[in-house]
Design a protein that fits this description.
Layout (H helix, E strand, L loop, with lengths): L2 H21 L2 E3 L17 H5 L2 H7 L7 H6 L2 H14 L6 H12 L9 H9 L3 H12 L1 E8 L7 H6 L7 E6 L1 H5 L1 H10 L10 H18 L1 E8 L10 H17 L3 E5 L1 E2 L12 E2 L5 H9 L5 E5 L5 H10 L3 E3 L9 H15 L15 H25 L7 H21 L1
Parallel strand pairs: 1-2, 2-3, 3-4, 4-5, 5-8, 8-9
Antiparallel strand pairs: 6-7
Helix pairs in contact: 1-17, 1-18, 3-5, 6-17, 8-17, 12-13, 15-16, 16-17
This protein binds D-arabinohydroxamic acid and zinc ion.
Length: 418
């Protein structure tokens, strides 16, 4: 095949993949967004975009400001400082900064005006429901998994009161305190009327399953989820292992729900940064291997925070069909890492993977997180198709659409059902 023909087909292939990936809606399988029924818990607007904890961490690298002084400021005052330091005094080249500008640009703002007052005025005129529709449309996202916790005192009353669900917002049942802080959680469950004791005896394990069943039903939870430290060890003599083996995983199997493990976060490395203060560490994935091997009939979703763990995670996915890996989580959600990780995954496990979730905390972030991620997934996928064409293989458009549908949520859906 001459280079001319090959180059032409490479460009054509990229266009065909770009078209498919733009047209096919995403099932965003992990976010911190809320159904509009949760009111102010659903964040949106320029001040929430600018005070995203990723940018809070970055502004302290420049601003001559104490943590105490910053946290005393209003959200608008914090946003002004972040805008001034990270966008005006220094070019906004970090992924989190660029994301704000991508979102504003796609919403129709002329960002070179650099005028926050115009942007604030526009947002003040928006009705929440219309903005939800607009952001989902611009991001081409048709379903979103929320992070819902029965231990969250702000969201819990809304669930207990009940509300008409927006079917686009699907629930993930988050259980970190149950697995990581059993002592305090036992007293919370007791207060809720569950007959639990700190010793994990049979009645207590039964009561934990009743708790999970009740909240799983109330949430109509798609999966259970937990974020775990890099020191997570399984099996161990800690309550985590007993609760996993004898309550959480049996619950998941009984209700056909996967368990999502998000491993590698070190909470409060710098507590003064509050939500921005979490760090990361490399995980010994032997624990994940043990979980998948000990529970062959359970389904595990997994994403890990350390780039160094990504290759081993892919190899584990090759060994265990009950493991579905997803996302370039948090500190790996930058083009450099996402490109490398996505290519590694396609080359090691093909299309049986969910390359990305947004982890959005602010509604409008969906626009940039999916614009940036689609660009990378499309580039890598087209490259892999191009490798195929050099063997004489041809990928018709309907198969490109099929494969992209898989990557943007189809493979996840199939995994959840199987
Ligand atoms: O534990 C998690 O779900 C993480 O995604 C944290 O919420 C983290 O603060 C975050 O927002 N990462 O993107
Ligand atoms: Zn998250």
């Amino acid at each position: 095949m001459n280079l001319e023909h090959h180059t032409g087909s490479r460009a054509n292939l990229q266009e065909r993949v770009n078209a498919a990936i733009a047209a096919i809606p995403v099932f965003d399988i992990h976010t911190h967004l809320y159904d509009p029924a949760f009111g102010s818990l659903l964040l949106y607007g320029i001040d929430d975009l600018l005070t995203y904890h990723y940018l809070v961490a970055e502004v302290f690298r420049y601003a001559d400001l104490t943590y105490e002084a910053f946290w005393k400021l209003s959200k608008t005052e914090q946003a002004d400082i972040i805008w001034d330091q990270l966008f005006i005094k220094h070019s906004p080249i970090s992924e989190a900064c660029r994301g704000v500008l991508t979102t504003l640009n796609k919403l129709g703002f002329d960002v070179k005006q650099r005028d926050l007052s115009v942007i604030r005025k526009w947002y003040a005129e928006q009705e929440t429901g219309a903005l939800v529709d607009k952001c989902l449309e611009l991001a081409n996202v048709n379903r979103i998994c929320m992070t819902n916790s029965p231990f969250d005192t702000e969201e819990r009353p809304v669930w207990e009161k009940g509300f008409d669900r927006d079917e686009r917002f699907i629930s993930g049942l988050r259980i970190d305190p149950l697995l990581l802080d059993w002592t305090n959680t036992a007293s919370l469950l007791s207060q809720d009327g569950y007959s639990v004791t700190e010793p994990l005896n049979e009645p207590t394990l039964t009561a934990i399953r009743q708790f999970l069943a009740a909240w799983g039903k109330r949430f109509r939870a798609k999966y259970l989820m937990v974020s775990l430290p890099p020191t997570f060890t399984y099996p161990s003599n800690k309550p985590t292992t007993t609760i996993l083996d004898q309550a959480v995983i049996p619950h998941c199997q009984e209700h056909g729900r996967p368990l999502a493990l998000m491993i590698g976060v070190k909470r409060a490395v710098n507590p003064d940064l509050q939500l921005a203060g979490d760090g990361m560490g490399r995980t010994d994935l032997q624990s994940l291997e043990n979980l998948c091997a000990n529970h062959p009939n359970a389904k595990f979703l997994c994403t890990v925070l350390a780039k160094e763990n990504q290759h081993e995670l892919c190899v584990l996915a090759r060994k265990f069909p009950n493991l579905h890996i997803f996302g370039c989580w948090w500190f790996t959600n930058v083009p450099y890492a996402m490109e490398e990780i996505t290519r590694l995954r396609l080359e090691l496990i093909g299309l049986s993977v969910t390359p990305q979730h947004s982890d959005a905390r602010v509604l409008d972030q969906l626009i940039y997180k999916w614009s940036h991620s689609r660009e990378i997934i499309s580039r890598v996928l087209a490259e892999k198709y191009d490798d195929l064409t050099r063997t004489g293989w041809h990928v018709p458009d309907d198969e490109i659409n099929r494969d992209v549908t898989d990557l943007l949520g189809g493979a996840f859906e199939r995994f959840c059902k199987c």
